Each structure stands twice: as C-alpha cells, then as structure tokens.
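Pair request: fold both.
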Amino acid sequence: MTELPAGTVTFLFTDVEGSTKLLHELGAERYAQALAEHRRIVREACAVCGGVEVDTQGDAFFLAFPTAQGALRAAHRIGDGLQPGRIRLRMGLHTGTPLLTEEGYVGEDVHFAARIAASAHGGQVVLSQATRDLLDDQLTDLGEHRLKDIEQAVAIFQLGDETFPPLKTISNTNLPRPASSFVGRERELTEVLARIEQGARLLTLTGPGGSGKTRLALEAAATLVPEYRAGVFWVGLAALRDPALVTEQIAQTLGAKDGLAEHIGERELCLLLDNLEQVIEAAPDVSAILASCPNLTLLVTSRELLRVQGSRSSASAPGSSPPWTSRSSAPASTRSRSRSSSPQLARGRSPRPRSSSGSPSASTSSREDATPTRASRRCAPRSSGRTTSSQKRSGASSVRSPSSRAAARRRRPKTSQGPSSTRCSLWWRRACSASRTGATGCSRRSAS
C-alpha cells in the first residue's frame, strides 16, 4: 500500500449522482460495466496526479494529495474522462492538516471534505476556502453556506463557470416559519422588495401592534435569501429591555465572537431586526454597525420610528391593508448589485401614490401631512418623542397609509349625501358644543 501523505493534505471525495436511478435505467450488467470504467478513470487520474486512494465504498472514492494543485488536476482529468458517459460525479476538495494514524486519517478535515462534496451536483467540482487559497485557477464564488454538523457558515467555490442548481446545503437562514399564510399583501411585498433592490440598506416597517409588520417582513426576508451570499437572519428583540443587549443578541445569532462589525465585515448579509421598539434607544448603535459594514442590509420592524441620521420616510403603497411606513437609509455608495434607482428617492422624496382615477392621491398631500386629524394621530405609529438635529434639518415626516385614513373615517360620525346630511352635521355641532359647556342628554332627536 502506498504511504499516505502527511502534514498539509488536500482531500478529494467523489460520488456518483443518482446511482440507484442509473442502475434501473441501464440494468445490472450495463451499470456494472459503466461503474468499472468509472473506477478505472478515477484511479488512473489519482496515480498520474500524485494522489493516494485512501478508501472506496460502493461508487464513492476518498483520495488524498500532497498538494492542492495535484488534487484539482485529478478532478479535471476525472471529469474529462467520464465524458460523454452516463455516470456523473459530484466532487469536493478541502485542504487541512489531519491526524495520520496507522488506520488512516482522523480529524474534522475529513468530515468537512465529505460535507463539501455532498453539497455538489453531478458534474460539479466544489472547493473549500482553504483549498481555494492555495490555487491560482479561475474559480466561481458560490457564497457562504451552512453544512450539516458544521457550526459556522463556510465559503464554497466552484471549478469553472457552468450553471448548476443551488448547492444541497442547509438553508443559510434562521427565519421562523410563519403560522399563517400570506394573502392579499402582494403589493406591499413588491414595494418592500423594490426599495431594497433600489439600494436601500435600512428599511423600517412601522405601525401599531397587530398590523402585520412582522409577517410582511418575514415574507420579504424569505424572498431575499438567495440574494445574499452570507445569508438572511432573523433577530427577535421582543424579550429585550436593555438597549445595550441588542448588539450582543445580533452577535449571538450570527455566532460572532471577535466583535460584531469585524465578524460581518464585507459579507453580503441581511438582518431582520424584529420589534426594535422595545429597545429603540439602540438605533444609533445599529446604524453605526450598518455604516461599518458596506454590504449589510437591515430590515426592521418597530412601532416607533427610527431616529437615525440620514433616514428618510416614504409612503406605503395605496390600498395596503395594515398601516405601515417604510423608512430607508441608503448611503452614497449603495450595494453593487442594485440594478436600478428611483429618481424620487434619490432626491429624498417619497413616490406619490396615485388614486384609481390616475390622479395623485389627495391623502399624500403636504397639507394633510402638516395637519393630521385627531383620529389619524391615534392610528399613526408611535413616536418616541426624540428628534435628532438631522431630522429637524431634513423635515422628515411620516405619511399615513390608506388603512389609517379608513380608521379615521370610522371614528367620525357617518353622514350621507341627501336631505339628512344637514341634520347630521347640526347634531354633531350641538353635541360638540354641549360637551364644552357641560350639558348632558344630547341626542339626534334634538335636531328635529
């Protein structure tokens, strides 16, 4: 038996994709012939490139190479040798320093290499970050992924630029599964996703309790999972009361041990901070983390408006069911994958919702924003009462959503178009006058 390489070793795991299905399609005899040819090609490539066959089980091989370059050349030769046959191999490479014993290799590197290979598809060669760092070849970055029994998310690369289905890894997210279905709010979801696509890195959904902020945010975050290489993560803040614990909670969710901003760095990451109103004083700390991490996006739900520098308010989509207000903060350099921009957002203005007739909706006029009704103030999102100097300069304000205006109408006395409208308004004036003078017993019948 050839002596196994020691020290820094690159492992190559191979496995036949869909072997059971292929057995049924080819039949036992033809499948045995194809499998024997596959084994010949793998062993020949291993020997030519300086590798050693550590183990084989069924149609899977475990090979070891003293160099990463030799392992990659072997993967090339194996892939080329199997073309255009029916057998398609998934292959994975990882470099480490395992313990070498009389029985073979022992250590986490062996299991890690096997997990890397298992995530690939037939015809695909994937590599770990440790192997990629030792190579000069052109590789495709597949982003960070979570593997079974591996604590941290890991970066995975692909040999070549061929398109394959998503890797078979654990979803790189911890988003909770909603108990209710998402019905009737597609327009709001579209607007939230559009604002993030346009470059918003801080998007806050505000509104009273029970208006559906969390459900909408979860649906948007779930849609965004494929867009962020480092994943999308939910951070629940409802149980917190100390603002100083917010960054610690985020760090615990992400597994950050050496500083939150340092851990995130330039990772393309999206965080959903749920119920920030419980610890709204932590908003400046959250904003500071956002400023330190150029590829971080924050999706926030809160009953209170965030008072952070550079934020600007925008109206929700006309016809949205629960009241919510989005506030976005996009620095001068937005994320590189933003493919479009909104001229109105770029000038710091909110897009003006239009009524069904096509004319601008009167509900978003500046006059109404300046003089909200008592009912609208009751339905509007809570404000902490803290106003920063940047907000005073920018004059940012919240725009009521259509549903909050509907709530205001429900609190007003009903009037109708016709002969009785005069009597209704007269009754209303008398009732208000009576409440100021202390009179009692006002009724509609008094107006007749």
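--- second member of the pair ---
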Amino acid sequence: FGDLCWKQPTIAAVTDILKNPAYTGAFVYGRSRQRPSATPGRPASKTPVPFGDWRIVVPGKYPAYISWEAFAKIQAMLSDNRADYQRLRGRGIPRDGAALLHGITWCGECGHKMMVRYKGGSQYVCNHLSREFQVPECQCLRAAPIDAAVAQSFLAAVTPAEIEAWSLARKAERHATETLRRAEAQQIERLRYAAALAERQFHRVDPDNRLVAAELERRWEAALLNLRRAEDDLARRAAASGDDARPISPRLRAKIVALGQRLPEIWTDPATRRSHRKALLRCLIDKVVLRRCARDQAAVRIVWRGGATTELTVPMPVTRLSALSRWAEMETRVLELVQAGSHDEEIARTLTAEGYRSPRRETGVLINTVRRIRRYHGLKAVPSQTRWPAVPGCLTVTQTVDRLRLPRKWLSEQLRHGVLQTVREASGRYLIPDTNEALDAIQSLRAGIIHHLDLREHRHD
C-alpha cells in the first residue's frame, strides 16, 4: 500500500474523516448525485445527498472504528455547527462573541432567524425581509438586557427546587404515559378478540350462503385492518417516546443537583469563556423568540428543550423620557413629591423603590432625571442635609447652640474636655437628646450650678 507519510492536518482532511462512513465499517453508495447544469454545454454538477437519504447502506463490511450511532451524532453536530441560517436553519456552533443568544434567537414578528450586529453594541437584528425585499428592518433589540434576563431564568431553572419539581413532573408524566399504554394494550386485546371472533364466524358459515359469507369476510377484513392500525399507532408512539420514558437514576440526579448548586459560581467565574456559557444555555434552551411589545419593553419567550415555555417582559433602554411607558405617571409622582417637601435624592430613591426607571437604564431612577423634570416645571429644589442625615429625637451641636443661644466655642470645649458627655457617632458627630430635661441641664452647666453632665444616662453632678 505504500509508505506511511505524516502531514500537518487540515480542516478539509479532518472533515472528510468525520464524514466518511467507512470508519463505521459500513459500505455506502449514493452519497452524492449528478445534477444537470442549467447552462447548456456545461457539465453536470455533483451535489451531496443528506445523511439518512443514502441509497445503499450495508453495515459490517469493514473493521469499525466507531459505531453507526456515534457516526450519526457526529453528522448531526457537523450540520448544527454550520452557520448557513437561510438554507439549513441551524443554530450554529457556540462562538466567543458578546451576544449570549447568538444562533438561537427568532423574530416574534415575521418568524425568521435573527442575526447579531456588533457595530454600536451587541444587537439582535431581524433583517431577512430587508435583504429579500428591500424593506426596513423588522426589529432591532439591544442584546445586553435580554441576555441578562435569559441567563437569570436559566440559572433559576437549575436550582434544586426546580429540579425536584421537574423530577415530580416527569414522574407524573411517566405515570400518565404508562396508564395510556395500558389502555391502548387493552384496546388492542379487544381488537384481537374481535378479529378472532370474526374469523371463527367466517369459517363456520355455510359456503352455499354466499351473501352471508361475503358479509362475514368483509367484517373479518375490517377487524384485521383496525387491529393493524392500532398496533402501528402503538409502535409509532413507543418509538417516538424513545429514551424519554426512562427514569433518571438517583446517582445521575444527585450529580445534576450538585451541578445546579455550583452553576451560578461557574457562570460568574471570569475563567468561564463566553462560548462555554452559550453551550450551557443550549443544553436546556431550544430557542428564544423576541418581539418589541413597546418602545421600552421587549417580550421574550424562552422555548426549553421538551416544549415548555417561559414568558418574560424585559425593559429596554431608550433615549428620551417620553419613550418610557410610565413617563406620565413618573412625572406626576415627581411633582407630588417635590410639593411634599422631598429633595431630589430622596425622590430618586422613592421612584426606584416604586419600579420607575430613567432612560438608558434598565432599573433605577437617576437624580439628574428628577432634576430635569423639576426644572422643566419651574420648581425650586428642596434643600437637603448633605453631610449627615437627621436623627429623630436628637439635636446636633449646631442645633443645640441655636436653640439655647449658647456660644458654640464653649459647648465644643465642654464636649472635648469630657465635662459634657453624650452619644457620639462613628463619624464624629455629637447627638444631644432633644428633651426639656437635657436642655435644662445644659443651661445649669453653663450657669455653674453643676460641674459635670452625662446625657448618655441623663445624670449630672
């Protein structure tokens, strides 16, 4: 056969090896077909035949390196890895781009697969109709908020509680399937009895009674046909269910639960590549359907492996306040809080707690947003305590001096030398009880009636 010559592997050579059925020990004929050329005078072109449509397959002709089942899985992986969306409609291999749902997003408006655009930030774009008919793009959605929402749903789906609920649902489904199969088996037994009864009646009839014999023969054939159909339906449903009816072993279930507990840590680990995160998503998610339901919202439908779906509404960043769905409500609420005496920082915190948000943000209201609304309506800002917040029932040194009309220097010296003792915060601020007893005691200290005052326990000497 010649000398063995080692060469540098190429993508084409490796692909030919992976696609060659001879490594399974099978003889195959009809992997390609001749297609006549549309141009006269040109030779016919050779086109590959899809896997599964080969004309002749004879297994066991050569020594096998791998099984036919493994070869079929490899062909499915190669077909799925191709990014020829328009022709194959495949998901494509997980790549290392920033878009987490690359290859599994579909447009909720026209039903076509969405592409990824990285210019100007990651975006999911439906441009199929634009390329085909030169019409505007169907929709364009920012990828970051959608990716975050889908990832959160994915991590929530693999928690131990969700896995336990899924296990119970699978158990109930298996029980219902077994009940249905028992009912179908009983129906087949009844049909077999009916066919056997029709056969006995036909054999017992007098051949001279031709009309009766013909009717009994017709009944026998109808009973056999019903039995054949019922058996075929049962076999087809059993083949379609396949391995789904098999329960998960306790050992495998324990591994799944342990992985679900560690998955959030693995997901947030900087060492985890984007392609690995995409591969993890595709283990459970079949596709994600996107549709812009409002200028600042996107409707997201996650289709899980097995057919279950999850509906989400994801807030999308916008460029103007007027593009927000709750813009009028937020404006009215800001005016109410300003008139109630709240300052801008407090209004921003209140609006954030009530679920409002600023443009270009997914959650939270910025102080600048509150300030813009207030200034637009010509309202002045309410002064706020910027250094320390007020403490109910207590006075600061400045407030005590203003209340009792005392020299600030004297009160500060009494506090510094320990003559006047009171509560002191970690920030260094002194807090004096706002009570008549405490204020009268400070006046007595100033008049020299007492020489030491401890307001922590309301004692004075």
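Observation on the second member. Residues 418 and 452 are 8 Å apart (CA to CA).
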